């Protein structure tokens, strides 16, 4: 592993370590020292790369939001018809809810920050806009907004339920939103 200024991956390791730490211990436990240790970098690297904890958190959560938007894109961009788009949304809900617990925890940690602090609300609003853009390739803006909220809610409910609902219920919920009268 390279050290000093010759280590081009140091910043990325710090951001990854930040998200790993948040997923395991929450935002409240983030400190320069803990993240530096977890990333395997000198403590001074923290202030070299980030002006403070807020910049570190914003950049880490921005990268996380980019990851989730990419997951949206992977599912929705290959749909060509309205039925395929509804099936893609169903697949997305199940992929997110059956996927990484880390992602679920990170999402909730970011939402908690956004509920408390405007700068994180801006980050989540940008994330939601980008997610809805993928939905709007297939649905009108109002339907896309409703589907975005449904995806969030069903994902959380499925992920936390010891007996999560099946694909048929997810598909019926999506059908209700996408075929409802305006």
Structure description:
The chain has 182 residues and is mainly α. It folds into 2 domains: 1-50, Homeodomain-like (Arc Repressor Mutant, subunit A), CATH 1.10.10; 61-179, Tetracycline Repressor, domain 2, CATH 1.10.357. The protein has 9 helices and no strands. The chain has helices at residues 10-25, 32-39, 44-49, 53-76, 82-98, 101-116, 118-135, 141-160, 167-179. α5 runs parallel beside α8 (141-160). The longest helix is centred in the middle third of the chain and has 24 residues, at 53-76. The N and C termini lie far apart (58 Å). It comes from Streptomyces cavernicola. Keywords: DNA-binding, Transcription, Transcription regulation. This is TetR family transcriptional regulator. Residues 31-50 bind DNA.
Features:
single chain, mainly alpha, Tetracycline Repressor, domain 2, 2 domains, 9 helices, 76% helix, HTH_TetR
Poorly predicted parts: none
- The N- and C-terminal alpha carbons lie at a distance of 58 Å
Q: List the helices and strands in order.
A: HHHHHHHHH
Overall pLDDT: 93
What's the helix count? 9
Beta strand %: under 5%
Residue share in helix:
over 70%
- Per CATH, the class of the largest domain reads Mainly Alpha
Please tell me the total number of domains: 2
| CATH domain fold name of the largest domain | Tetracycline Repressor, domain 2
Q: Considering the protein shown, what is the CATH homologous superfamily of the largest domain?
A: Tetracycline Repressor, domain 2
DNA-binding region: 31-50
InterPro entries: Homeodomain-like_sf, HTH_TetR, Tet_transcr_reg_TetR-rel_C_sf, TetR_C_31
Protein name: TetR family transcriptional regulator
Keywords: DNA-binding, Transcription, Transcription regulation
